[in-house]
Structures are given as structure tokens and as C-alpha cells.
Amino acid sequence: MKLDRETILEAALALLDEVGMDKLSTRLLAERLGVQQPALYWHFRNKRALLDAMNGEILHRAHERKLPLPGETWDAFLRENARSFRRALLARRDGARLHAGSEPDPGDLDMVEAQIAAVVGLGVPVVQAMTLLIALGRYTVGCVLEQQATPPDAAAQQQALDAAAASRPLLAEAFASYRRAGPDALFEIGVDLMLEGAKARLAEDSPEAPAPTPPAPKRRSPAPRR
What we know:
- Helix content is about 65%, strand content about 0%.
- The protein is an all-alpha fold.
- It starts with a helix and ends in a 21-residue tail after the last helix.
- α3 crosses α4, α4 (about 75-90) crosses α9 (about 170-205) and α7 packs antiparallel against α9 (about 170-205).
- The chain is built from nine helices and no strands.
């Protein structure tokens, strides 16, 4: 079998799905490929470089909404971009753990520049555009990380927690809503909050925004009758 980057990455991603991040190693990968471990380092200088390449491959295959569609607003695009990123991370076992701490490939910087340029072109200043992309990206990774870290006995733990919260009415109501929503709806709620907050902040910073109305003067209360 010819050993090249594509073959190694394909085997590495299959191994990730099988054993997860904790057991993924270059030694085990070399065994699966039927080669000596040093052979991998002709293509990837170390394990970190391999993990970065695996992350890049996942995003290349499954992260589809990287630029706005014609007529799309900046907030609609950022919402779809976050959804697409989440789907890509969920497509692989421990996808969020793999992505966390990874470094972008220098070859991807043209796409990052194009994303920022697109959001800026839709009316968002460059610093805010970059901040939003980073914030939504980190929020997405965190959500997927929590979802993929759900233990096998999660249902039993949740039942015990809900039972303990039953005597606390506010917690009981909040937990019930949380359980009904599920990870998909909760992710959307968080994205809504971030985008609505960003729109409000941009409106405040806009030079065309109306000046805030000063508070009405307080009337002096009449002296109490004695």
C-alpha cells in the first residue's frame, strides 16, 4: 500500500471514530497501516501536526457554509456558518476535542480573509467581524464538547438531579425546560443571544443611532401630612 498524506488521514479519521481521542496514537495508527511509526513522520513532523491536519480535513469535508449566499444578511450568514461548523464537529467522534487547540493552516488564511471581508461588506466593522467569528466559533466548540462528553449513564444522572431539584420550584422549572429543549435548540438559543447582542451593540455604536433620551426630571414628592 502506498503511504501518502491522504491515506494516513483517512486511516487516522477512521481510527478516531473507533477509539476516540484518548486512545488515538501514532503507534496504533502505524499498526493499522502496517508500517513502522517513523514512516508517519515523513508526512507529519509530529502528532500535533497530524491532529491539525485531521481537523482541517474534517472541516474541508463537512463545513459547507463558509461564505454568505447572495442577498444574505451578516447575522443570517453567521448563524448558518455556526450551524455548519457544529455539524462538521459532530460528524466525527470527539470532533470538538480534536479541533480545540488546533492551529489554522497558513493555506486557510485566504478563506479567513474572505470571510471577514464578506461580513465587513455586509456592514460590520472589521474588529467586530473578527470578534464575532471567534466568539461564535468558541461557543460552538464548547457546545459540541459538552454534547460529545455526555457519559453513558447520563440519563440516570439526570433523573437523580431532577428528583433532587423537585423541591426547588425555580430549578425544577428551569431543568424541565432544559431537558425539553435538547442540544440542538439550546445551541440555537445561545446563537440568538449572541447575534441579538451584537446587533444591539452595533446599533449603539452607529453614528446614525439616535441619542439616548435623557431621563425625565423627578418630581418632588409633597411633604407628608403630620
